[in-house]
Amino acid sequence: MNVVVWNEFRHEKENQVVADIYPEGIHGAIAAFLQKAGHNVTTATLDEEQHGLTDDVLNQADVLVWWGHKAHDEVQEEIAEKVKQRVLEGMGLVVLHSGHFSKVFKKLMGTTCDLKWREADEKERIWVVDPSHPITEGIGEYIEIEKEEMYGEHFDIPTPDELIFVSWFEGGEVFRSGATFKRGRGNIFYFRPGHETYPTYYHEQVQKVIQNGVQWAANKGTPKFVYGNAQPLEEIKEK
Amino acid sequence: MNVVVWNEFRHEKENQVVADIYPEGIHGAIAAFLQKAGHNVTTATLDEEQHGLTDDVLNQADVLVWWGHKAHDEVQEEIAEKVKQRVLEGMGLVVLHSGHFSKVFKKLMGTTCDLKWREADEKERIWVVDPSHPITEGIGEYIEIEKEEMYGEHFDIPTPDELIFVSWFEGGEVFRSGATFKRGRGNIFYFRPGHETYPTYYHEQVQKVIQNGVQWAANKGTPKFVYGNAQPLEEIKEK
Amino acid sequence: MNVVVWNEFRHEKENQVVADIYPEGIHGAIAAFLQKAGHNVTTATLDEEQHGLTDDVLNQADVLVWWGHKAHDEVQEEIAEKVKQRVLEGMGLVVLHSGHFSKVFKKLMGTTCDLKWREADEKERIWVVDPSHPITEGIGEYIEIEKEEMYGEHFDIPTPDELIFVSWFEGGEVFRSGATFKRGRGNIFYFRPGHETYPTYYHEQVQKVIQNGVQWAANKGTPKFVYGNAQPLEEIKEK
Amino acid sequence: MNVVVWNEFRHEKENQVVADIYPEGIHGAIAAFLQKAGHNVTTATLDEEQHGLTDDVLNQADVLVWWGHKAHDEVQEEIAEKVKQRVLEGMGLVVLHSGHFSKVFKKLMGTTCDLKWREADEKERIWVVDPSHPITEGIGEYIEIEKEEMYGEHFDIPTPDELIFVSWFEGGEVFRSGATFKRGRGNIFYFRPGHETYPTYYHEQVQKVIQNGVQWAANKGTPKFVYGNAQPLEEIKEK
């Protein structure tokens, strides 16, 4: 399976705290554990030509993982649109954390994707609410993260196709932190954790969920539809 | 309740068949039965200034009904965007027939909204599949329309929040022809029938469904959220 | 609208703390604010003949509100089954708090309806996650209850048709505390708060949600279906 | 993967037409193509001791396939209940055709599961309405079956978690003929076709869907929950 990990890759260059946590970039950390899981993984970042998302890269990708935060606006409209089209055609998409505000995710959702947030080193408990879903395989009742940024409701997304995780935060908020969405032939998984100043992507259970999400999101050959003017049945033709 | 019926209003000017069926325009026919149902109804059309959708009109609308077909591209991007925002803020939206391809609906859905179609004077049977839903009040097991344009699956929309009607067509197709979607504080109802060359909007049961849809879509005062940087609980503050 | 408030009515007779909070019984407190909202309200309790749920009472009920806790097993199988049938036929059902373990709710859900719980005087924050839903009308971003029993995930219910509220608890848990389910022609609303040793049903926002739920759950005349051997269309008949 | 194919196995003994089509029984035909797909398949039938569903058989089953029609009532209450529990604990369940009226399915759904039907040698077209779902892998836009029994709406089931197929019938009806449901840790797939007097289970695309359904329904290790009295966090303990 071909997996492309896309990262904005700006915090790592501008903030020493982030650089220390992710010396190979957030994409590097994510690519590493997905590679170990047996996938064929490449990375792409904002400042590359076409943000590293050429037609070739996208056409061969089974799943695209997306992390962005402070430079959503710098993603070219045309490329965001192309990524959206590829999702509709069947490329899986895993959107992480602040990627909720990416052009690609907002275009696919049709809503503002806004939320509440707070940076206060809070404990997060990510509870499983759908223990039949393959994305929860190998996970316990909940995942605990000692310190994370808080995301709180209301999260302005369409009703998810499946709600898998709900987060509890020390400060009094809850958040629908793991949810799936179908768009065309594409499967989308949003997963909340991963603020850049915390080592969240080294957390084993977080890694396991992202691996499961990548596995789940890949399309293995579902039908392609022909749209537009349709042929009638014989009975109609003869009328 | 303030209801605005929007119509492209082009077929009626260019095609005598349509003009004969809807001498006051499709918007006129729809406005008439909604008025009878007790609503405060106004209309707006493509060729008016700002397509008749000024800030004032939109801000006072509880529900907007939308019919368009051959001139979706002529709807100004800025106005389509404004309508979308108003839906997210709580204005109800009832999208009819070929409105599936309108800019507003596509923006809110995030998909192509494509489908199969055929003009062959086919019989349509619109079956109720959710007999607990208020939009079906006063309707029988199905609505039969003697002749209509066919719309067939796959209909490229996100999974509806509620699937209320499924159509059967003589020529061999089915279609999810009545479906609801929540986006932000807004309620959206898509209802399939209403090709311009048939007198569908005079069909009593079709009228009843549209009335029910308007009633259902109106937001009567649900919570407004504050997004962004959140205040912590006392315990967190004191840390 | 005819509303029947059913209560087990045992805690109030056996526990002075509960009797002091609800001198007219939990059913009395709930009936009082529903009556104020303009409904025609009666009550029924476990120790009455047929638990107060005669055919007459059920046939005339638009909505049944259910509170039970320690004596679920004493509800006669036959009456639980009759209530279930009435829901499928179109009677609305509002299930409160420990009613999650009632025979009626379990029969309608098909799952164990089990959950985690803790009695520790915890703060609860009931967050709105669906601000387009009429059950949230007149409510703020969340409802705060100073002290309540905790209910935690996993809550073993089928995926709700609509998830409206998610609770946060001081001790680290979350709970899907407001959810709707459609069964046949019946609308079901489950709402979590209301442990018997707290004055929760005097909380104005809790009352508002229950009123909204009753309003929402009532069926106003949706289609009734004929099941079984179906008549063919003419074309098929002539074959 | 261990798959158990359960069949009532009565029509085959009593009706020569059915016996001629399925000389090894419907279970034999289904077991054969699932075996070819690489599963470890066994069968069980109504007239065996405990209907062939001993604790041992159920505890080792990853997925149970169910076909029944005329003798639903002869399935012992206790065994139906045991099968339901196993589904809630994580055994996958694929319910075929008239199995919609089986005790097991009705217990898990909480509704009557009733529908319209007609035996008139009608053409059926099973349209894919969710082309992102793995159960549609390898299938075209629709599956056509030359002659089948008709099942029509309203199908009295809870809203499916996923609606994958909708059938069109020559005589004027539609039917939600492929749908998934989550119950506890269990995945359930209902698939409509398969009346005993037609050779439907030899249809390659029907076989492919059932294989996909079995694959999808198996639980590969999702979390098991502890229910009941919960432990508090440290902060709560110290209160």
UniProtKB/TrEMBL annotation, chains A, B, C, D:
SUPFAM superfamilies: Class I glutamine amidotransferase-like. It comes from the Bacteria. Residues 2-217 form the ThuA-like domain. The lineage of its organism: Bacteria, Bacillati, Bacillota, Bacilli, Bacillales. Coiled coil: none annotated. It holds the Pfam family ThuA. This is Trehalose utilization protein.
